[in-house]
User: What shape does this take?
Amino acid sequence: MGRFLTDAPIPDDVGHGSRAGRTNTATTATTDRTDSGTSTASTDSRTSTASTDSTDGTDGGRSISEAEAVALEVLRQRRRSFEADDDGSPLRPTMAVLCRGRKQFEPIRRELERNGVPVQVVGLGGLLRTPEVVDLLATLRVLGDPDRSDSMLRLLAGARWRLGPADLMALGDWSKQLARTREAMFRRGTSGEQDPDEDQIRDLVVAPDLAEAGSLVEAVDHLPPADWVSSAGRSLSPVARERLDVLRRELRGLRAFVGDDLGTMIGEVERTMLLDIEVAAKPGVSIHEARRNLDAFTEAAAGFVASAERVDLAAFLSWLEAADQEEDGLPVTQLEASRDAVQLLTVHASKGLEWDVVFVPGLNEKSFPSGKDSRWSSGDAAIPWPLRGDAAELPQWDWEQPDQKQWLTSEKEFADDAKVHAEREERRLAYVAFTRAKHVLVCTSSAWGGGRSRPSAPSSYLMDLLTIAGSGAPGFSTPHWLEDGAEGETNPAISRPERGVWPFDPLGARRDDLERAARAVLEQAAEPTPGVEVDDGRWGREVRLLLARQARERERLPLVLPAHISASTLVQLGEDPEAVLEQLRRPLPRRPGSAARKGTAFHAWIEEFYGSGGMLDLGEYPGGADAHVDETLGLQEMADIFERSEWALREPFAVEAPIETKIGGVVVRGRIDAVFRDADGGWDLIDWKTGRPPGREQREAKAVQLAVYRLAWSRLKEVPLDTVRAAFFYVADNLVVRPHDLAEADELEAIIGRAHAATGRPF
Assistant: This one.
């Protein structure tokens, strides 16, 4: 348990003076992210004592912040072990930092990464604030909305393009001039499809307020003439024009992918922006660890595509905006405790989970507990409580009063009740946070943080823990506690301005050496020695040696089967484990085809059929407006066949029932298309197939999918395996295929075992 002066390290001067407003004349380079810390304090409880010798509140005489203390304690706890593997080897502890709000994430994440600790930001809201995702999202916004000048500015002023203030102001002048040009043409009745000549541009006189409609996105896409000078006397420097021309070509190329599926487009944006190379170049971090945030964003996009009715870029960006605005974020994929990284998430997202070591920073008054009641009578931020599903558990406002005086009195009474309710909910939330720890709980607080003008008192929850620690209870320690009155009168975090150089040069002092090396490589590539075969010369031998070494290193890279896979992946593992493992090693997007569209459309129609009593036409399913395409795919014929089948007359117990079960240490997930209850009390699981039945040699492999469904359903309902049947229904052929020898648990585990053997890891 601990309390510190600040929640983040006090900034040191990183530079003096200022650089000229022009764009840096050096060549572009990949972004080098800056780091900063946040404050943390630690409190140990539960079954083991965690006295923190390394977190005594000082660092060479300097008072450390809360975030630095958390990072140091994380490093110390990572050296401990609370559990052992099956072979007796110690396991690294699972660790999580639980925050009351997402605004606490960034300083803690930066300080952990500065200390070389892998971090997994859990939840879409927090993920959107990680540096690489911020850049990726800015590009998506520029592609999806020409009015997002803020996102374009993020790219232009970033470490890759590095436009200086003078060039940015000149580009802003050009964007306003383009807006004035459009307005003038509109007033003259001139078509805006053609660019104006230079004389028209110079003669334009439009009211100044119209200039506010300028767009940097448009300005980059339509760069000014080479000799252009704004009315303010500004112009683009040659280096800025060169970089803007490259950026324009990249964005125009990416716009060709806007109509593709989101996964393909995000991958193309990532490669074009060189984000994949940038994260892979992080020193001392594996490629899987470096790509964690980008992969999580791609997974969130896949979840959106699977659940949303409209899956274009605009809808995806709106969904992300909602996730960013909501404090608790939007639900993402199911979370599992990780031993590979410290997981950073909100307390709300931690419900139902446990970690070996849990950190709860920011235990300050008016922060945790928040001190807010959020009653619906105080504004339009919340819906009226009587309309909520949990209205019976909430205090209610008796607002129907005969006069205004009694109405105000009743509202005051309601406010008091709402405050008591809010305090009770905050205490419940604190209970959730404190009980997530299996072995060690570290609670911290700080007097100053962010832009606070007054110091914050420690949370009542932290004071309760301090009282217990002071009573001599075993398992508690307080390695550092800021004494009362030591906070000072001003916030140290804002007492000293943070200085830096802009545009930021990610290469810094290394730039000259790296540029010299790059020029040497380019010169050698462009001008090979005359009369000498490059492949037989010294460079050829060097290249072959490097490639051979890289191949050996690639062979030694461990390939681990994921902790959870889909049922279809398990089917593929049974057919060709080597191909599946190669796909896991080098994932490639699947080519969209008519078979996938046919299956998606028919499954959507099935859901509506059962949900609406079979009264919908095929074209009424969500996204089924393309009737001419549906006719080509034969969807109407399949619908007619289904309506004549036995399944149309039966009422399913469940449709699209989600299942997951553990097989050989791997969690297998899937969805059962339809579950029926038989007359004898048994269960019948049906998987709709819109393709053709497989050949005899493939039937056994395909039946693995049904075997997984059957095993998972029997475990879910806690019924004997022999009371669960499963079958494929091939709709186009009106054929039911019911395998009689479905694999049981040991046979499915053998498939996982063979996959583990192919990775070279023991099963």
